[in-house]
Write a structure and sequence with these properties.
The complex is a heterodimer. Chain A contains 9 helices and 17 strands. By secondary structure, chain A is an alpha+beta fold. A 6-stranded antiparallel beta sheet of chain A has the order 3-2-1-4-5-6. A 5-stranded mixed barrel of chain A has the order 7-13-14-15-17. A 4-stranded antiparallel beta sheet of chain A has the order 10-9-8-11, with no helix packed on it. The longest helix of chain A has 18 residues, at about 5-20. Chain A starts with a helix and ends with a strand. The relative contact order of chain A is 0.12. Chain B has 10 helices and 23 strands. Chain B has a 6-stranded antiparallel beta sheet. A 6-stranded mixed beta sheet of chain B has the order 10-9-8-13-22-19, covered by helices on one side. In chain B, a hairpin with a 2-residue loop joins strand 9 (about 310-315) and strand 10. The longest helix of chain B has 15 residues, at about 130-140. The radius of gyration of chain B is 24 Å and the shape is globular. The chains are: A alpha+beta, B alpha+beta. Strand 2 (about 45-60) of chain A pairs parallel with strand 3 (about 65-70) of chain B, so a sheet runs across the interface.
């Protein structure tokens, strides 16, 4: 990244300015991002974009008051100093919040100085030139594809390749200094096909890797077309209670509300259906959910949070019992609980198999459909919401009806409803098939007794 | 804090020349200087706040329908020229004349749709601390079940300068103020939350007693129903959508399909259907950038096209898509002022502004409800999602009631309405005369976030799927 040392020096200078201006404590975060992107439309290059962002975020603690300020005008020292002074004036106008403080220095990261510690930086970044980018963008294009029997044809294809470098540098007035950087090579493609009746169906697929050597998007176009073609001829089912298998692409949607409900803000505001769940078994014994931020080289790995607090691998839910809330320094002080990290970094759901038969080595959606026998395979959620205070949810679903472990036909215009606690109580299986490119490592899931509304 | 943009006119010309050097036939520049300020009340104290300063210039080069885009956060000449060269790489290498195929912007808007009587940038933020405290107090006074109040006042002013290869140069000052609250209520050990917001393209004058009272009422009215509400049995039934905020369904389920990029690419269910009947007679659908003070108002869009009102569906017939310059050139029509972007970091694409259905002849919500044997009355949706190609949508009902034999019988919550946009449009069987534009802080997230608003009169849809127990 051009001028990175100068920018980091400027971040340190900004911290000094804040203290000189009268702040008792301060933290400065420097965020930099460079991205090059090539988008395609119908098998040809449609858009080329180059992005370069840099901004400073300044957390000020002054006279028991607190505020967060950010700017991307960081080159001019006079302008930066004026920004700091005006920010401090605004902080002093606020009401006191005496519980605001920097984290205990003993808790902050000491092992993230070079930026590469999480194993997500590829030195090969920067070797990719404009022509190679176009090559990646066009290589996976399925443009021109059609069904051999003429039952559908591809009418639109949009692909997007990007490579990026992200860097975050944090310093605070208690001596914290840490750096994280990661590279990403990503490709996504969306296709629209039209069947012989004129109805349109869309399909999407994507892949990404932190290292160029691990990046292979060549199959994505074919996969997106397969997804679209498989959705032809959907039917609405009768409303009722079914077994549900949730494909790994969609499964994190059922885990995220749990993580949100364990977050400090929801707990402190009494807006969480898990507010009284700490150290209680509220999930089935087969459910173990961990946070594994220190899995070096794995997507989402990270050694510190936004306060600079060192992350560590920990149980979130162990055999059904809630083991932690996610509390930053402020929320911990407000709730009187011990601080952890601001939020889960890299959640991992451990595999589970409820049947008496031996647990297969690989548990994917096919194994889970066989386990369930009959039910609905959910491959995606379309809209919907959940109530964080009660745990009630209602999601539009897309997917397939299956019987005897085999897919029968696609379904549409159906809604899955329930409450997260009874839903998870019906957990039949959790897969080993989580994708390496996803930050939440959640495999396919199977539940019994799920309410679906249709006709 | 500095926000003035005043580039040397010769630099603008140099940047455009550099952008076109690779063979593109259109170049435009989008300078932006934005200051956002937030004040947050939580647990009875305005104890947190912040400012975000964001400045830069986006440079776009078009080669036919193809786009090269780059931006610089620095307004130094060297950095801007470097961005222009990056954007120029979309060209085919042959230097050519600037195309006249792209339309000139046309006459300036007749009026400023969002004058600021009190500029946020010169207003002491200290004036808003007592206003937030007053709001907290109003809410707590109105209902003893109030447990937590979280209120955020956000203000933003953007100075924008746009210049293009036709030599057109326009400036716009864009204010935005939003006041959003989230309240947690407790009753017999059960909790319920309510979120309410109001947002306007206006200056600091918008924060007055009337606004605080309105929000306090919105936050606490109908709370008994919310605690009593249950999830009804699901199935297929009639749906009456209340005037106002339920217009978000129109935005998501139908509005996106009118955006010309989805049609140009063949992805929309309305592609190739211009001039066809898509709804029954008497239905008119508009997208409007000219509502004074509205969150979706635009003096100019982000390509320098003056703000205007576009009629997409005229008496049930599809008459227009929502165009940016690229799609307008593609279809051989004039741009409709819908080329919008989140910031200088993004290239403009067709986006909605304030999207609403015109009033109809069928009375009020009560009249429509009286015609329904079994159905759901939706007062407000929380959020929704649509699949553009298929038109399938799902919307989460924030508040509503069950309709039985022409009467509202019991409140419902935590359900979804699911259907297909074009089919739902065809299945609208009655439209009330009570059009209401909602002033909530709606933000559309198609690739980029832009402020929008929505509205609708009371509408009866013959049949939709309701996801219940």
């Amino acid at each position: 990244m051009n001028g990175k040392n100068e920018d980091r020096a400027r971040a340190r200078r900004c911290l000094q300015m804040a203290l000189e201006a009268g702040a008792q404590k301060a933290r400065v975060s420097l965020n930099c991002n460079v991205m090059d992107l090539v988008a395609t439309l119908d098998g040809a290059v449609d858009r080329i974009t180059h992005c370069f962002d840099r901004s400073l975020s300044l957390a000020l603690f002054a006279d028991g008051r607190y505020g967060v300020f950010s700017t991307n005008k960081i080159d001019d020292e006079t302008q930066l100093r004026a920004f700091v002074q005006q920010s401090l004036a605004l902080v002093r106008m606020l009401e006191a919040e005496p519980l605001r403080d920097l984290p205990d220095p003993a808790r902050t990261a000491k092992d993230a100085r070079e930026g590469d510690e999480a194993g997500l930086f590829d030195p090969a970044y920067g070797t990719v030139g404009p022509e190679q980018r176009k090559g990646f963008a066009l290589f996976a294009s399925p443009w021109g594809a059609a069904a051999p029997d003429g039952s559908w044809r591809l009418i639109s294809e949009e692909g997007e390749y990007s490579d990026s470098l992200y860097e975050q540098y944090i310093v605070d007035s208690q001596g914290l200094e840490c750096l994280h950087r990661e590279t990403a090579f990503e490709y996504g493609i969306e296709v629209t096909i039209q069947d012989s009746r004129g109805d349109r169906y869309s399909g999407y697929w994507w892949d990404s890797a932190a290292a160029l050597r691990d990046f292979d998007p060549s199959y994505c176009g074919r996969k997106a077309v397969q997804e679209a073609a498989a959705a032809i001829g959907p039917r609405r089912l009768k409303s009722g209670r079914y077994c549900a298998v949730i494909d790994r692409e969609a499964a994190s949607r059922l885990v995220s509300p749990i993580l949100k409900a364990l977050g400090g803000y929801a707990i402190q505001q009494d807006n969480s259906f898990l507010r009284d769940a700490l150290d209680k078994q509220v999930f089935p014994a087969g459910m173990t959910l961990r946070d594994c931020p220190r899995s070096i080289g794995q997507t989402g790995a990270r050694f510190f949070d936004s306060e600079g607090v060192a992350t560590r691998d920990r149980d979130i839910v162990r055999e059904g019992t809630v083991r932690t809330f996610f509390l930053n320094s402020f929320m911990a002080a407000k709730t009187g609980l011990a601080p952890t990290t601001e939020e889960p970094v890299r959640p991992v759901l451990e595999p589970f198999w409820s049947a008496a038969s031996p647990q297969p080595k690989h548990i994917g959606r096919d194994e889970l459909m066989r386990l369930c026998g009959d039910g609905i395979l959910v491959t995606g959620f379309n809209g919907g919401n959940s109530n964080s205070a009660t745990g009630d949810f209602s999601y539009g679903v897309e997917g397939f009806r299956f019987k005897d472990g085999k897919i029968l036909h696609p379904v549409n215009e159906m809604v899955m409803t329930g409450n997260f606690l009874p839903l998870w109580a019906g957990l039949l299986g959790a897969g080993t098939d989580a994708r390496a490119c996803q930050q939440k490592s959640i495999g396919s899931l199977a539940f019994e007794g799920v309410d679906f509304s249709g006709t | 804090m500095s926000w003035m943009i005043d580039p040397d006119p010769k630099l603008l010309e140099r940047l455009v020349r550099e952008g076109l050097r690779g063979g593109g036939n259109w170049c435009d520049l989008y300078f932006e200087d934005t200051v956002c300020t937030d004040l947050l009340l939580r647990d009875g104290a305005v104890g947190s706040g912040g400012v975000n300063v964001d400045c830069g210039c986006g440079i776009r080069v078009l080669d036919g329908d193809r786009t090269g885009y780059a931006y610089s956060e620095s307004l130094e000449e060297g950095a801007l020229l470097s961005a222009a060269r990056a954007a120029a790489s979309i060209g085919d290498g042959s230097v050519c004349a600037v195309s006249s195929a792209f339309s000139a912007a046309g006459p300036a808007p007749a009026r400023n749709f969002y004058p600021m009587r009190e500029d946020w940038r010169s207003t002491d933020a200290a004036r808003f601390v007592p206003a937030l405290q007053r709001l907290d107090s109003l809410i707590r006074t109105r209902d003893s079940r109030v447990h937590k109040v979280h209120a955020m006042l956000s203000s933003q002013v953007s100075e924008v300068l746009m210049y293009n290869s036709l030599g057109e140069c326009v400036r716009d000052t864009r204010p935005m103020g939003s006041l959003s609250i989230s309240v947690v209520f407790l009753q017999d050990g059960r909790s319920e939350t309510r979120t309410v917001s109001r947002s306007f393209r206006a200056g600091a004058e918008m924060v007055d007693e009337t606004l605080l009272q309105e929000l306090a009422h919105k936050a606490t009215d109908g709370l008994d129903a919310q605690f009593e509400a249950s999830r009804p049995k699901g199935g297929t039934m009639s749906v009456v959508m209340a005037a106002g905020a339920s217009g978000i369904l129109l935005h998501e389920a139908m509005g996106h399909a009118f955006e010309a990029d989805f049609n140009r690419k063949g992805q929309s269910v309305f592609a190739g259907r211009m001039g066809e009947r898509v709804a029954r007679k008497g239905i008119w659908i508009y997208d409007d950038g000219t509502l004074p003070g509205n969150r979706g108002a635009c003096n100019y869009d982000d390509e320098g096209i003056p703000g205007q009102k576009t009629c997409m569906v005229e008496d049930g017939i599809l008459r227009s898509y929502l165009h940016d310059r690229i799609s307008a050139r593609h279809y051989g029509v004039t741009p409709t002022g819908n080329g919008r972007r989140e910031s200088f970091r993004y290239n403009p694409i067709p986006r909605m502004r304030a999207t609403y259905m015109g009033p109809g002849p069928d009375g009020t919500a009560a009249d429509l409800i009286a015609d329904v044997k079994k159905g759901v009355y939706v007062e407000e949706f929380a959020n929704g999602e649509v699949k553009i190609g298929e038109g399938d949508f799902t919307f989460y009902v924030k508040s509503g009631s069950l309709i039985e034999n022409g009467r509202l019988t019991r409140p419902v919550k935590d359900i979804n309405i699911i259907g297909n946009g074009p089919r739902a449009l065809r299945d609208i069987v009655a439209v009330g005369g009570d059009l209401l534009i909602d002033d909530g802080a709606w933000t559309c997230g198609k690739e980029q976030s832009v402020p929008v608003s929505c509205g609708i009169p009371s509408v009866l849809v013959r049949e939709l799927t309701v996801g219940g127990a």
